[in-house]
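A quick aside before the break. I want you to see a complete sequence-to-structure record at least once, exactly as it would be stored in a machine-readable document. Don't worry about memorizing anything.
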Amino acid sequence: MKYMLLIWNRPGFTEELTERDRTALFGEVDEIMKELTESGELVGGQALADPSQTRTVRLAGGHPEVIDGPFMESKEQFAGYLTVDCDSPQRAAEIAARWPDVRFGGAMEVRPIMDEAGTEM
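That is the input. The structure line, written in tokens, reads:
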């Protein structure tokens, strides 16, 4: 089963870390990515640009309107994702629990990806 691990964190938190802590954090990410690649569980993933570069489209006055930024109430922003193919939701959650952003106030959302037939709905 494929799972999308959505990375939520506080924008700019890495700039608050010491160089040593930042290097360690990115080293942990590299280690997890290497392990997932070697195990064949990694399907893909990508970090997202700073939220200040985001545009959101919403319906306003009956017409789509483009506005700057995500401007959510939450201090956390969607920062990136991983797609993994693993045996169980528990394994996907185990991978997410190791993601270092979680220790710095972020969160990982684990969502099953529907197959093309959409039978999971």
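Two observations worth writing down. DSSP finds two helices and six strands in the chain. The helical segments are 19-39, 89-98. We'll return to this after the break.
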